Amino acid sequence: MVGETGFEPATFCSQSRHSTRLSYSPSIEYIYFCLINSQTVKAMQIVKKIKKISLSKSFFPFWRYQFLIKSLNKKIKPYKINREILGVGDVVFALCYSPEEKKFYLIKQFRPFYYVRKEKYKFELVGGLVDEGETLTQALKREIKEEIGVKVLKLKKLTKYCPVPGYSDEIVHVYYAEVEKIKDSHLYNKFENEEIKVSKLTFDQIKKINSSEQIQNVLTKVSIYEYLNKIKKS
Q1: Which CATH architecture does the domain made up of 90-232 adopt?
Q2: Closest to 105 in 3D by CA, of 25, 176, 1, 161
Q3: What is the pLDDT of residue 59?
């Protein structure tokens, strides 16, 4: 159990291009609810952490929190809730582009979702977890080297967002990366036991991913959208 010294206001922000983000800061152990890129902030609740219990420490740590919620609506009495949170932390991904080939490099690899839901492998971006002591860009350069075997020539931040605020502390940082020409389209990342197939896509092909009515990887779709609006337009 981790003690708490007092209440801190949680705020909801009214507008966002993405989704509600749950951000957890262990240093002060307060919970804030907010939306990315919003401008209007209105206090809604005061949240206090009562308990934090470890449920699992496997590939990702899994925690159960108990919160005491005090609504700023005086008609609602204080109440307790229990929530499980997956400890993912910060992750980095890049929409990789080769100026030499004039092609985008997207990858496909095994994910449990595809097996469980009987779906074909989907196009993904290169990337992964930020290791302890790494900056975001250091982690991204390492992941690009590990997964597609090339060096980064140029990086530009596209966006950041939280994909599943209901049960994870994950924050996704997305970049556009210009990279060297790949030498191999089928790689095995021995550090993570990942077998990766690299596909070379044209600009028209990546646009079709976003216009497709089939299930797609949400990170891939968000990244292409941000690229079209922030890089291609400029």
Answers
A1: Alpha-Beta Complex (3.90)
A2: 176
A3: 86
